[in-house]
Amino acid sequence: MIGGGQEEAESRLPPPLGMELLRVQPAMIKLHDFVDIDGAWHPVINMVAAPGGRVLIFKNRPPQIVTGLITISRKINYSIL
Fold this sequence. Notes:
The protein contains no helices and seven strands. By secondary structure, it is mainly β. It has one domain (about 20-75): SH3 type barrels, CATH 2.30.30. It has strands at about 20-25, 35, 40-45, 45-50, 55, 65, 70-75. A hairpin with a 2-residue loop joins β2 (about 35) and β3.
């Protein structure tokens, strides 16, 4: 399980090129955001609502339950509003 703990570890990986690190609640995670699992960035390809959080689905990893704040990497949006 990712998150849920009061002392969740921050990601020690630098974000991939053109990405930024964000600390978000499970409801703020989007498709194609990257999550640090076991020292590597994995893109979210699907997600399902779960009690108190979300289940994140990855291509080559087992699903992960997210219940608290999590550090993600997201493509930087340079568009001007």
